Amino acid sequence: MQLPDSASGDTGLRFKYPPLPLYPIGTLTQPRGPYLKYPSNIRTEIEYNPLTQQYEFKQKIGKISLLPPSVASLDEYRSKELNSSIRNYWYQRASNNTLSGAGFVPRFSIGGEAFDKVFGSNVINIVPQGSAELIFGFNMSRVDNPTLSEKLRKTPSFNFDEKIQMNVTGSIGDKLQLGVNYNTEATFDFENKTKLEWKGEEDDIIKKVEAGNVTLPLSGSLITGSQSLFGLKTEMQFGKLTVTSVFSQQKGETSVMEVKGGAQLSEYEITADNYEANKHFFISQYFRDHYDEALATLPVINSPINITRIEVWVTNKTNNFENSRNIIAFADLGETDPQYTNPYWSITPGNRFPSNESNNLYQTVTDQGSVIRNLSSAANYLNSLLPYGIVNGQDYEKIENARLLTEREYTFNEKLGYISLNYALNADEILAVAYEYTMNGQVYRVGEFSSGGIAAPQALVVKLLKATNLSPKLPTWRLMMKNIYNIGAYQMNRQDFTLNVLYQDDKTGNALNYIPEGKIANKILLKVLHLDNLNSQLDPSPDGVFDFIEGITVNSSTGRIIFPVVEPFGRYLEKQFGDDAAGRAIAKKYVFKELYDSTQTRARQIAEKNKFRLQGTYKSSSGSEIPLNAMNVPPGSVVVTAGGIKLQENIDYTVDYTLGRVKILNQGLLQSGTPIRVSLENQSMFAIQTKTLIGSHFDYKVSDDLNLGATVLHLTERPLTQKVNIGDEPISNTIWGMNGSWRTRPQILTTLVDKLPFIQTKEPSSLVVEGEFANLIPGSNRAIGKGGVSYIDDFEGSQTSIELKSYPAWHLASTPQGQPDLFPEGSYINDLRFGMNRAKLAWYVIDPLFLRNTSLTPSHLSADDKSSHFVREVFEKEIWPNKESPNNIPTNIPVLNLAFYP
Questions:
Q1: Is residue 394 predicted with pLDDT exceeding 80?
Q2: DSSP helix/strand/coil, 754
Q3: How far apart are the C-alpha atoms of 561 and 548, rounded to whole Å?
């Protein structure tokens, strides 16, 4: 091979441009990297010189040669040509259209005429996308517990975790499409979707077959179909008749809400026993006794008291000790009625109002000086009062680091003297207050304030409202209000708010808004229970409507209904029947005293008296946006109607399916107050109950203007358990219906409209008539019997077993208190004499290690020791001779041993 004689000189450039190749066989090879490509007008000419028997390569632009020609022998030319041909062959194969863009799995073909006839072609194309992460590890933990053997101190474990996020799309032929979306980190099941879709030809009977996540959208408003189904769906056409059928599981739940003027109308129903417990408290017996009197002349509150300052203390169950103090709370502090105070405290004569001077309690305890300010010494002093019936947990409470509530955690009524907490207290939490009020210009105080000059850690003396022992027999039980009910609403409006008090009458089987006998016969219960004394202008004229008085009978911000009497279904209702013998006899059948002198659980069990309930509707704050109370709503499942007329999406309203909100665009609907009905299908967050939906929709297209349809659907629920509670019966309902629509374009309408002044139509007028009919056939699942059997109560589930053999559950009992004759040592605090008369009791389970002959068994134990009936092993065969042991290995039963030394 001959090289050119001349070489390019050094241009002095830092980055030299590469020269053209010496042997440009075939197509000129373009440079790589940051260099520009060769111009398209550079061509290569190859000529054979018979004289030299060599090939000459010339690179030209037009007729001008760029470089001196290069030559190659015949063997060199053949070798270069062969390599170039092989390279071009594989390049063409790699860039073949059948493989381009195939991704991880290339397309491939399946031969056969039958496959082509079913799927439209022989090509299968699968395109997977996503990621897969596998985490595998080994963990060895060691616990240096001397009671464990060396082997048991090490615990090996494997960590195996996988994360898959996959999206597969593909096609089998031209007719079958598939799509799979799967994510192991998905929060809910409905986020993973799978769908197969087969489409037929235009003249095929079977138009479409879908499997996986399918939908059944229907145009009617009575039978709306479903958007969240998983199963099989077919669509067939017989001439003008189209039949759509589904056999699937329903994954969503249908809900309906009504809105008027942009505000949502909601119904509520609350039984009388469902008052808010442990949230609302009177701060003194005085305010409870004068509550009915203060609200007797609504809307005026007849109370001379105005509370100006209050501090609320609760048990501190947080790690925040910033606003905490030691407190000693007394139930009798500030009380003036002898029937609600301990006789040990003497009542101050002539003092009718609550204050620290109402009795001698405050003066007596504060005279102890530093003794009462220290919780340890105060315990000894207070325990000395036990012989006088002053008991810890009911008459007083000592709390270390009690938490002072902020003003955002409660509200209080400065006239009526009660507080409302934002959350309900637990049984083991206490509630105490210190407050100050004015009356006729005079200031009264109950308890001590944290800023009153008593520095921490000295204890404050405050008023106890709720102790750990909240028994109906104690005076503190009266302080908990039982006349406030929460209907579950927020920001209620006076407009369109309704409330009815109903009584379930056993004779008629209906809920009545009156009691049919006695002096109050045929009077509505709203009037009887002092809830209807005013009209809408708050004038003293009953109008048969609930008196909506903010802060007195309702709290609109929290959705609470407040009765203006302490015991509406108890003593107050009893008084309405009269004091005569006949009235008292009738009152016994209706008055629900147990609601107020028993626990809430006990009152709910008295079915013959628990027959009152509150029922009504409320309207939330208005606006153009309507919350659906659901997220990730299936697209197309929201149907909005106004006055029975179906509205069009994106014209009359828009839907945010992700956040679950409907925005009304037609402001005329909101201003006119037309009732708007929104129905939607909400994806079930946790699909527990199985629902099966089967049915078909028939659509017959008579002409372009006339269409007739029919639908039949059957929904079945499978019960979760064999015993179904009342109200949770699984349904097996069938609904069928018919619908039709007719459109016409009468020219007379267009002519009449054109005759109107200043109106000239550009489109012909049209008239659309639509109608539908539906019928529901209710039923119950066969799993609960032919007639549908449900259980009022499962008494088998009311039994709770307590395992006595569990030795960790046993504890030493405390010495009984309050019985000085039998247990005088119970009065000692932090004293060894507290348990001096306690008998010795030991409980234990003997480890089989001491009873078996192994290398770990202590050598000093003899056979007699191991066989003693007090310590020996007990096997299952001794108790259940016919019971088979797993793997034929004898199974021992742990025996709890009790050693009692009187």
A1: yes
A2: helix
A3: 9
Short-list 561, 563, 589, CA closest to 503: 589
Q: Is the dihedral of CA 139, 144, 148, 149 positive or negative?
A: positive
Q: Which of 474-488, 513-527, 577-591, 632-646 has the lowest mean pLDDT?
A: 632-646
Q: Tokens 């996503």 map to which residue?
A: 130
Type and span of the H or E element at 462: strand 460-466
| Residue 324 backbone dihedrals phi, psi, to 5 degrees | -130, 150
Angle at 427 between CA 814 and CA 811, to 5 degrees: 25
pLDDT at residue 118, rounded to an integer: 76
Parallel/antiparallel/unpaired status of strands 691-701 and 241-250: antiparallel
Q: Tell me the CA distances in angstroms from 894 to 147, 149, 845, 854, 876, one per residue in order.
A: 19, 21, 7, 19, 10
State how far the Cα of 332 lies from the Cα of 391, in Å rounded to an integer.
12
Q: How far is CA 738 from CA 217, 220, 694, 701, 771, in A?
A: 15, 9, 17, 14, 8
* Angstrom distance (rounded) from CA 268 to CA 497: 11
Element (H, E) at 211: strand 206-217
Helix (H, G, I), strand (E, B) or coil at 575: helix
Per-residue confidence at 104, pLDDT binned at 50, 70, 90?
low
pLDDT band at 27 (very low <50, low <70, confident <90, very high): very low
3-state secondary structure of 378: helix
Q: List phi, psi (to 5°) of 29.
A: -75, 125
- Interatomic CA distance for residues 265 and 619, integer angstroms: 5
What is the C-alpha separation between 41 and 49, in angstroms, rounded? 25
Residues with Cβ within 8 Å of residue 158, at least 6 apart in sequence: 136, 137, 138, 139
* Residue 16: band (very low, low, confident or very high) from pLDDT cuts 50, 70, 90: low
Which pair of structure tokens corresponds to residue 79?
Answer: 């070798």
| Cβ atoms of residues 693 and 249 within 8 Å | yes
Q: How far apart are CA 743 and CA 766, in angstroms?
A: 7
538 vs 555: CA distance, rounded Å = 17
Give the SS3 label for residue 609: coil
Query: Counting Cβ atoms within 10 Å, is residue 335 exposed (0-12), middle (13-18) or buried (19+)?
Result: buried
| Distance between CA atoms of residues 432 and 410, nearest Å | 13
Q: Quick check: 386 and 342 in contact, CB under 8 A?
A: no
* C-beta separation of 391 from 818 below 8 A: yes
- Take residue 61 and report the two structure tokens written for it: 């632009």
SS3 242: strand
What count of residues does the chain have?
902
Other beta carbons within 10 angstroms of residue 877's beta carbon come to 13
Q: In what order do the strands lie in the sheet with 560-562?
A: 484-486, 560-562, 554-555
AA identity, residue 690: T
The count of other CB atoms within 10 Å of the CB of residue 157 is: 10
- What is the average pLDDT across 605-629? 83
User: What's 852-866 look like in SS3?
Assistant: CCCCCCCCCCCHHHH
610 neighbors 272 (Cβ within 8 angstroms) = yes
User: CA 364 to CA 346: how far, in whole Å?
Assistant: 10
Question: Using the 8-state DSSP alphabet, how is residue 892 labeled?
Answer: B
Please spell the DSSP secondary structure of 662-730, one letter per residue.
EEE--HHHHHHT-EEEEEEEEEPSS--S-EEEEEEEEEEE-SSSEEEEEEEEEEEE--SSSS-BTT-PP
Helix H or strand E segment including 554: strand 554-555
More confident residue, 738 or 74: 738
Tally: H helices and E strands in the chain: 17, 41
- Domain boundaries in the chain? 1-95, 102-185, 254-262+622-683, 280-479, 486-496+504-602, 807-901
HSE on the CB side for 696, CA within 13 Å? 11
How do 154-172 and 612-619 pair as beta strands? unpaired
Q: How far apart are CA 900 and CA 840, in angstroms?
A: 6
